[in-house]
Write a structure and sequence with these properties.
Strands 2, 3, 4, 5, 6 and 7 form a 6-stranded antiparallel sheet that branches. This protein has helices spanning 2-20, 23-30, 33-36, 39-62, 69-74, 81-86, 92-112, 119-143, 167-196, 201-232, 243-268, 272-294, 308-332, 347-379, 387-404, 418-424, 426-442, 448-471, 479-488, 491-516, 620-637, 640-644; strands spanning 518-524, 529-532, 535-546, 550-561, 564-569, 572-576, 581-585, 587-591, 594-603, 609-616. The chain is α+β, with helices and mostly antiparallel strands and 658 residues long. It is built from 22 helices and 10 strands. It is globular and about 80 Å long.
Length: 658
């Protein structure tokens, strides 16, 4: 019965979305506050019904209700309870319901925490947000219904894809969706501003917390997905330039540019038209990612749908929203005032420089990802665009950006002093140069450019802390005075420094593991010993055991150094009984910032088994850097100026017209 309630709740959510998408916007056009007031309760009610529907599907999975086609195709009664929960979004229909749930949640949060918005703007924003909900609720009900029944119901399910039966799946997709969908708020604000024909610095202050929240979640989602692929797929790599990976990376690049552009708009009332365009493009790239994963045009571990009907429906949504938003932009943007002027050498100029390179990098990834698909669709010719293309295009665009990042916070608004900023960074440059020389000396004979890459990461890390260090007069004033200044420094300043420091950490990790990783692939038998990076790896035994829904072969290795055991590692190979599908479960030993990574291959006729062993120096910094970025984002989000938001206009005082 709850299944039918869940299905009916989706229908009711669709009806409410239709009301929310029309009545409030009509009220804003006619000035009827009663009609505009419908938006808030409608958004909350819509979220309530979608949440009820999601809860019904979750219960069906937990109870192994195989009368549902979706549950039968993606679950098994022997699955651990955790993976019955994660199976809800481990398939096309369930993941789209999660997408809509998060979308409705953001709409409800907008309704609950936007009391300081002008009534007409709030009505328009919630109406645009509901347009998106309306489209995807229709998509689910008409092409991807998760509540479709099987009659008669089978006794057992087909099991979830074994690759997805991992704790990473419980974390990665929801985080990614919060990032994707979070940018819908910026899109709704942009469309509402274009509909009203006015935009100002207050608009940027309202939208920035939502953009930052989405950016935080998307950063976490990409990082978690990278680490999940690293340890689950057994390839030993952290990024493969897979088209679906790129689909999440593009809105991250665009969203980062939007975040910086909104700062200029809030502080200097400039870049208004550009900020609106970035808000539209960022969510458009999120929709593009949804299309790539759900349309069946890609073959990937991330891709679910293969039904062309679904692909056409999502393509229609894509064209309607992106095309409609860009048409609205082309019509209304020329009417918006441009705002304040600034010199090229200024903090605004540095942020524009940042925007240009982030946008160019996003365009390079966009072309490399979509060009093969477009070529195949037009000519039938299949080509592959892999890591060499992206490394040769994306990498060079990042180098000048990373060099310039420490300069930005040291420049004044409106007109800055580049020479003065360079002088303040002399100590950072000297330390960076020393690190490059030491790295080159220690790795003499290795990759020459690697030392420069290390210098780039160190430059970013030291440069990030230079600006707050100067503001608190570190080493130039008594320690107590510096501590008091540090406490009084805005949290957003610390957040910016931490985020930039995290970028430097990630760059350092990427360079180190790419340049100095060592690999040992060999056939081993119990009793054999090998060596990697000064560590002895002794093969103890190869055994078999039975899991809840899989059988596995596991090996035990002792890792030692100078004859002293350090740790035990146990990589495995599993075979999931329901699907008959094998998976590789790696074993990873973390030693400070480096990792020893092991994966089993296939048994050999000689009686041994293939083993892959990697030494990955500083690889932990890749993901630790993203964690520092997120902490920086949270610090900025906790700044009082974000919590207060834009002030309410005084009663009886009209807002200034553009």
């Amino acid at each position: 019965m709850l299944v039918e309630i869940g299905h009916f709740a989706l229908v009711l959510a669709l009806a409410i979305a239709l009301i929310q998408s029309t009545i409030p916007i009509w009220g804003s056009r006619t000035g009827d506050e009663r009609l505009m007031a419908v938006a808030g309760p409608a958004a909350i009610a819509q979220f309530g019904f979608v949440a009820l529907s999601f809860a019904a599907l979750t219960q069906a999975y937990v109870l192994s209700d195989f009368s549902l086609l979706n549950v039968w195709a993606n679950s098994h009664s022997d699955q651990p309870l955790l993976y019955r929960y994660t199976s809800v979004w481990g398939n096309h229909e369930g993941s789209m319901l999660l997408w809509v749930l998060i979308l409705a949640m953001f709409g409800a949060l907008l309704a609950a925490f936007s009391g300081n918005l002008p009534k007409s703007l709030k009505a328009n924003v919630l109406a645009v947000q509901s347009w998106i909900s309306l489209a995807f609720l229709a998509f689910i009900l008409f092409t991807s219904n998760p509540f479709e029944r099987i009659n008669p119901p089978p006794f057992e399910g087909q099991d979830l894809n074994p690759i997805l039966q991992d704790i990473g799946l419980a974390i990665h997709p929801p985080l990614l969706y919060f990032g994707y969908v979070g940018f819908s708020v910026a899109f709704s604000f942009a469309a509402a501003a274009l509909i009203e024909g006015r935009i100002d610095a207050a608009w940027a202050r309202w939208v920035r917390p939502w953009v930052l929240t989405a950016w935080i979640f998307l950063t976490l989602g990409i990082s978690m997905g990278s680490y999940w692929a690293y340890y689950e797929l057994g390839w030993g790599g952290f990024w493969f330039w897979d088209p679906v990976e790129n689909a999440s990376f593009m809105p991250w690049l665009s969203g980062t540019a939007l975040l910086h552009s909104a700062i200029v708009m809030e502080k200097r009332n400039a870049l208004k038209v550009w900020t609106i365009l970035l808000a539209i493009l960022t969510f458009s790239l999120s929709l593009l990612g949804t299309f790539l994963v759900r349309s069946g045009v890609l073959t990937s571990v991330h891709a679910f749908a293969t039904d062309p009907t679904r692909g056409v429906f999502i393509l229609a949504i894509l064209v309607a929203f992106i095309g409609g938003a860009l048409a609205l932009y082309a019509w209304r943007a020329p009417l918006l005032k441009q705002g304040g002027l600034f010199a090229p050498i200024s903090r605004e100029g540095a942020l524009v420089f940042n925007n240009l390179f982030l946008s160019a990098a996003c365009a390079a990834v966009f072309i490399g990802t979509l060009y093969p698909l477009a070529l195949e669709a037009l000519t039938g010719e299949k080509i592959s665009v892999g890591a060499p293309f992206f490394n040769m295009t994306f990498g060079p665009l990042m180098i000048p950006l990373l060099i310039a990042v420490p300069f930005g916070p040291l420049l004044a608004w409106k007109r800055g002093d580049l020479l003065g900023a360079a002088q303040r960074l002399l100590a950072v440059a000297a330390l960076t140069f020393a690190v490059v020389l030491v790295t080159w000396w220690l790795t003499y004979g290795g990759p020459v450019l690697a030392a420069l890459g290390v210098g780039l990461g160190i430059w970013g890390m030291l440069g990030a802390i230079a600006e707050p260090a100067m503001r608190i007069k570190l080493f130039r004033a008594p320690l107590g005075d510096s501590l008091r200044r540090a406490i009084g420094l805005p949290r957003s300043a610390w957040g910016t420094a931490m985020a930039h420091f995290g970028v430097g950490m990630t760059v350092l990790g990427v360079v180190a593991v790419s340049a100095w990783q060592t690999e040992n692939i060999l056939v081993m038998k119990p009793g054999d010993t090998t060596e990697i990076a000064g560590y002895d790896i002794h093969f103890n035994a190869l055994q078999e055991r039975r899991g809840p829904n899989f059988d596995e072969q596991f090996a035990t290795f002792t890792v030692g150094r100078d004859g002293i055991p350090v740790a035990m590692l146990s990589p495995t190979k599993r075979n999931y009984r329901a699907r008959g599908m094998p998976t590789t479960e790696t074993a990873i030993l973390t030693l400070a910032t480096r990792q020893i990574y092991m994966a089993l291959g296939d048994p050999q006729q000689s009686g041994g088994i293939a083993v892959r062993i990697y030494d990955k120096p500083l690889v932990v910094l890749i993901w630790l850097g993203t964690v520092v970025m997120v902490i920086g984002g949270l610090a900025s989000l906790s700044d009082r100026r974000y919590r207060v938001g834009a002030p309410k206009p005084a009663r009886g005082v009209a807002a200034p017209a553009e």
